[in-house]
Amino acid sequence: MNNISAHPDSDGFYGDYGGAYIPEMLLPNIQELKEKYLEILESPSFIKEFTSLLRDYTGRPTPLFHSKRLSQKIGCSVYLKREDLNHTGAHKINNTIGQVLIAGFLGKSRIIAETGAGQHGVATATVCALKGLECIIYMGALDIERQALNVYKMKMLGAKVVPVHSGNKTLKDATNEAIRDWINHPEETHYIIGSVVGPHPYPDIVTRLQSVIGHEIKQQFKEKNPGKNPDYIIACVGGGSNAAGAFYPFISTDETQLIGVEAAGKGNETSMSAATLELGRPGIIHGSMTILMQDQDGQITEPYSISAGLDYPGIGPVHAWLDAKGLVKYLSVTDEEALQAAKDLTVLEGIIPALESAHAIAALYKMNFRSDETVVVNLSGRGDKDMSTYKKEFGDE
Amino acid sequence: MNRIDLLFKRKQNDILSVYFTAGHPEINSLAEILPALENAGVDLIEIGMPFSDPIADGPVIQKSSQTAISNGMSLKVLFEQLRNIEFNIPVILMGYLNPILQYGIENFLISCKEANVSGTIIPDLPLSQYLIQEETFIRNNIHNILLITPLSTDRRITDLAEKSRGFLYAVASSATTGSSSFHNADTSYFERIRSLNLKIPIIFGFGISCHADFIKACDWGSGAIIGSGFIKLLEHIESRKMDYTRTIADFVCRIKYGNSIQK
After folding, report:
1. Looking at residue B45, which CATH number applies to its domain?
2. How many domains does chain B have?
3. Could you tell me if residue B32 is inside a domain?
4. B156, B174, B179, B181: which to substitute to probe chain A, counting the most A Cβ within 10 Å?
5. Which residues in chain A have Cβ-Cβ distances shorter than 8 Å to B107?
6. Which of A124, A200, A247, A390 is the most exposed place for a label (fewest CB within 10 A)?
């Protein structure tokens, strides 16, 4: 055991990464959050309501499933943490439930969020419906075209979906626009960021809220394997919230090797990848010092992945730090490898994964496990939203 | 002495500062716009360093930044252009931190000095982070200008005023650029600033687009900055192939005096 904590210092830094590089206009909001978030997250009334909503509304704890046929194929014991079984279909709702409660403590009546594929948008619109709050979702105009089903879900849930036409019209631009909305409506609005990105204290807030995943893994794994921790935990990383949540309780233990999986798109040697840690350099995106994909002039570039949830040009500062410290091993997986993994999981276990989660499954093939080793893969979401991609890729037969 | 300080030594009121984005509308437009502004009697010029993700800017400046980047503008090109133009008024570079970090902060400040740039405005470099770099700015005689907003507490305004150099940039309303009207700004904020008796000159920005706004800003502070309003003019000039020098002189005249130059 060592004494490493996955929390930033009081200025929001994880080593060299993190911080709050924000315009003065955002300072009062960020300051307020920074001063109050720990007190709120640790208050008995927050914990009580958060826990009860996670249980009764989203269906937690999600199961830890021993995936026997996949285990046989890989040659070790593979467990799946079934985040795909959460209400709305992914781990995203753990964060939005927590943050909508934070908004309540802060007395904010208007919620804004960005979304890429629409999963975080749907999870935000859902909790706003639950709490009767006004909800505005910023979404790139291109993503709106690609994710019609999620757009409709958000609208049916009562959210206003605002198309973003600036930049490349995708997640990065939607995030910029959400930040601008917050600058323009500072007093009544809470911004629910969807990942462990953005200015401090967001990366820490989202990590803490998602850490329910890791805490459950720890407990459930011990129930099945008394006295033991898994040898490996694997999770996909875009911004990195499901990974941060799954890794969180294991960061200070040497028993468990943590593996983060980035999207390599069509390959890291091509210009179409989203493997930030492999291809990026230190810089600032959305108020945080981290590793990001950029050109030589410091203009942020557009990443590519078949999975809309992984094509973020930055990465949460906690991951930039975990990578620098060597506490987590990061790999990348191509579109093709992820698609194959999705197909394998479907036919072997009867579980259609989200494309993002399929990247984590694909990493199993890249490792050499001993037969007595145990691996937990965080299955962050279900494949419903990706059916048109699967149909296109696998054909109709 | 820094040119910004020289300006305020000579003139304490009715300061007009104009913002435009480098590389917009055309890659070389700066060579026409900067002299035209100086000739038109503008006191200060702010040149935007385009960034792909300008989070504090509204649609007008966002669009100009995007155009500038696709035109090939970068810090390297900008410094090259500035070194090839003669100007005597203070020029301030305004832009986001990431391109500056990639260029290297110290390198950037040296290039500023070599190109006769007098100051910087970097919205996403907050006070706490600026203080880590303060000595480098001072050593290179580049004034870093800090922003205050209507939501800044008195304490915060005092801290920012103490560390801002040259002048203090008072954002008139809590908003992105170009999205609000100065005319409707809350005067209790102006009164609050006045009551703090700050030693540094105050220049108002955000939402200033006409003579009435300018007069109001000059009543409450030392002057005003026009950004989005001027960018719109540049697009108008470009699309109609108008004459830069004359149209800009006319615009400046209307802002300062409320009437056009007579033919």
Report:
1. 3.20.20.70
2. 1
3. yes
4. B174
5. none
6. A390
